[in-house]
């Protein structure tokens, strides 16, 4: 099995279910988006959360994907930066417990926090204070960090640092790795479309996008967007919600059906878990159809809980479901 190393913002998620979306408007957070916030806004949110029931979990897009891969026994790695505070210790301890090979740097700033608002329909909106995560420097990335891996998984949220994300991809390519990019959020794509285009055409082998991200990148609807993205890389995936996902590699194109979920609690991590499932299949040499089915299994389970932490019983159920797919 090939190994994957991820790079992303090392964040701790603080999650809260809200009664309606008026709260998002009062915080100037567009529903379904990820917005970077400063310390003043963070303090307002923390004051608000102090009067609400919240849940704490390790997060960050790449962090979620790598944790899910670890649960499947993939022995992945992770590159990121944390503070020397309780949240940083929480993040490091969790990854180490999962047997993730951590390449975590530290600084004096507070660790990054993703304040996550879960709407009644399960949609999630992030107010993200990057803190220490944003101080990962280009010169801190070393060639030896990528040794022993076959894939680099990059979250699009790193786009705020062009030099960092490009150096990571360049070092990965020089080490012989394939590069996988998740587009992260439609507003991130809208703000950095030209740079996304540069990265995809120059470095990226596998692209993950949902339909709003694909539309922001291409200006086209899912099927046409898939065609355009696939012309620029080896494998393109466009997730289309209740209709499943579209996958194209060269002349091979398929639509994977979704798993029916009657009780969507929280969509946090759905895309991250989809990527984990797909990459798990890819690194094991499975067909695109089986990769997509495994991806769908993982994403269908995580949207039934608040946050991205699944019980061991649920992971056992997921593994049985995967075995069924592989035997089909």
UniProtKB/TrEMBL annotation:
It comes from the Bacteria. Keywords: Kinase, Transferase. InterPro entries: Carb_kinase_PfkB-like (IPR052700), Carboh/pur_kinase_PfkB_CS (IPR002173), PfkB_dom (IPR011611), Ribokinase-like (IPR029056). Residues 52-312 form the Carbohydrate kinase PfkB domain. The keyword Kinase applies. Pfam families: PfkB (PF00294). PROSITE patterns: PFKB_KINASES_2. GO terms for molecular function: kinase activity. The keyword Iron does not apply. Belongs to the carbohydrate kinase PfkB family. This is Kinase, PfkB family. It comes from Phocaeicola coprophilus DSM 18228 = JCM 13818.
């Amino acid at each position: 099995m090939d190994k994957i190393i991820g790079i992303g913002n090392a964040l701790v998620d603080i999650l809260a279910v809200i009664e309606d979306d008026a709260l998002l408007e009062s915080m100037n957070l567009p529903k379904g988006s990820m917005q970077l916030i400063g310390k003043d806004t963070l303090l307002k949110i923390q004051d608000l959360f102090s009067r609400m029931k919240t849940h704490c979990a390790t997060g960050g897009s790449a962090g979620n994907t790598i944790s899910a891969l670890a649960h499947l026994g993939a022995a992945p790695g992770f590159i990121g930066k944390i503070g020397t505070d309780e949240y940083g210790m929480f993040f490091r301890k969790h990854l180490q417990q999962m047997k993730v090979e951590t390449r975590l740097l530290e600084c004096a700033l507070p660790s990054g926090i993703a304040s996550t608002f879960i709407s009644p329909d399960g949609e999630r909106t992030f107010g993200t204070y990057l803190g220490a995560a944003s101080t990962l420097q280009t010169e801190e990335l070393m060639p030896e960090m990528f040794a022993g891996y076959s894939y680099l998984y990059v979250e699009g949220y790193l786009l705020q640092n062009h030099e960092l994300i490009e150096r990571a991809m360049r070092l990965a390519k020089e080490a012989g790795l394939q590069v996988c990019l998740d587009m992260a959020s439609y507003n991130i794509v809208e703000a950095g479309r030209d740079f996304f285009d540069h990265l995809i055409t120059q470095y990226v082998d596998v692209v993950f996008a949902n339909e709003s991200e694909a539309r922001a990148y291409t200006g086209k609807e899912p099927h046409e967007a898939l065609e355009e993205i696939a012309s620029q890389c080896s494998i393109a995936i466009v997730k289309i919600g209740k209709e499943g996902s579209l996958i194209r590699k060269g002349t091979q194109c398929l639509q994977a059906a979704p798993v029916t979920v009657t009780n969507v609690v929280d969509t946090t991590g759905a895309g991250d878990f989809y990527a984990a499932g797909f990459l798990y299949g890819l690194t094991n040499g499975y067909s695109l159809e089986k990769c997509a089915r495994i991806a769908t299994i993982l994403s269908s389970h995580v949207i039934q809980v608040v946050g991205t932490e699944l019980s061991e019983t649920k992971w056992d159920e997921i593994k049985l479901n995967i075995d069924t797919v592989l035997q089909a």
